[in-house]
Amino acid sequence: MPIDLAVVPVAGQGTRLLPSTKSQPKEMLPVGRKPVVQYVVEELARSGVRRLLFVTGAGKTSIENHFDINAELIAFLRETGKEELLEELDFERMGLEYFYTRQRKQLGLGHAVLCARPIVGNQSFVVALGDSIIGMNAQSAIVARMAEQFEKARAEAVIAFEEVPRDDVVQYGIAKPRAGARDVFELADIIEKPSVAEAPSNLAVAARYVFRPGIFDLLAETRPGKGGEIQLTDAIRTLIHKGGKVLGVRLAAGERRFDIGNFESYFRAFCEFALADPRYGPDLREYMRQLLR
Ligand code: G1P
Question: What SS3 state is found at 102?
């Protein structure tokens, strides 16, 4: 059966983006014209996902509002002769189903995924982190490629990876590939946020995963790890150590990950997306040229 369900954890507090995230979710920050989470949903929809389960937390209701059909706004645009703006709301009609559950305590990413268990039940599913856009304008088929490998190899899990500079390994889950790390490779191990010296490679988990429901039992047994949090990476590690086949799929050249978790990468992402905007990009480019002179 094709995988059509994605769990999107969006419960994190976004403390690295304060004060912007004091009263709005980081997933709702705009990158170019759209909020981050809209890119994530559009990417998943293009890869065959039809049902989205957001794991939310305090202060995240604007995400739910964003994906609702806003009849009042539609009527207002019609009545005031602004019909041309209606196409900006087309994403409301992607034909997706939305579900929401809450992580009631901030115990880490692994715990957030575990909160999805009662709704996911006994089916394979995608996990897509809500603060990462993959590819310019989210034009990425990484999840479709991962799902294909998952079925073909009857893997227990498939994870997206991208190469990062050696000094950055401390921020990510890092793969130890079994043999040479080609576009698709098998994992011998995975370590959450290792030191530069400990890191077995510079292949970093890139915010997209495919799992069988068996991961939930492992998450339920996972003790707090790095940062005192229940880490998804640690449950994957147990899966590998128990003999489960876990594959890595690398992002392709055009599929960079835009991380909206800190200002440095958020500013870069915003600039790149704004510069690529067909309507506003060319003017902005000129403006920036003048600024930089
Ligand atoms: C999480 C994961 C980490 C992964 C990263 C980016 O870390 O724990 O393994 O590499 O997302 O996908 P966070 O950025 O939430 O600290």
Answer: strand
